[in-house]
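Report of the visiting student (M.T.), summer placement. My assignment was to run the structure pipeline on a short list of targets and document each run. The first record concerns Glycosyltransferase family 2 protein.
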Amino acid sequence: MLVFVIPLKSPQVSKSWERVTKLFERCIKSVCNQTSPDFRAIVVCHEKPRIDFAHPHITYLTVDFPPANETNPVAQGNTDKGRKILKGLIYAQQFYPTHTMAVDADDCVSKKLAEFVNQNPNCHGWFINKGYKYQEGSKYIYLKRSNFYKMCGTCNIIRYDLNNIPETAEYNRGYGYYKYYIDHAQVRDILKRESKNINPLPFAGAVYVVETGEHLFYDSNRLKFNIFNRRLLNESLRNEFGLHNSSNSILTTV
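After the run finished, the structure tokens were exported:
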């Protein structure tokens, strides 16, 4: 079984909680659109978002540790995200997952992930080498042919026992304590050094949604769109990734 862990930022540090909520609703619909019913989704949050969508495989796990503050927004935000991912991974034990995947709450994922994992339960895991990049409101989507995992946090599917979960979790720790869960681009190399190689996913696995106004950190290269990789956002792609309109006029249109 594949368990998705989705850390959701708190209303206190959101630039627009309405925008965060609408993007999350699309994300969770995408996650729950799996072709196999053998999955679970754990949403770790300070406050449960009010959305119209419900699914029996979703668990909302609320936390009581202080939300990130504005002293150092990137470091504080990453620490908050790491705490939530760890909390979700520990909670996931009760579902006896073979694998887990951290998903950023504004991204979308392929509906084929759970079925693929179920067919390969003993593999160390996979990193998403090929995926898509999308700017809200556009009629186009852009294929990222390689190194998607270096750009987007929704990128690693890890066998559960390789998550390096501490015996006793300490949620008052800082950024360094959670680096393994946050530094998505490093996971592949870390596991390789331990002779526990993860493989490239053999299909495009996720959509990285850019310029939402809620990202912690932006590398300007992530905002570049190569016209040669442009694809029309057709119904087939929308259905595979659940990439339907978020009904959010706040976001930029191109």
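The chain has one domain: 2-128+153-204. The first strand starts at residue 2 and ends at 7. I thank the supervising group for their guidance throughout the placement.
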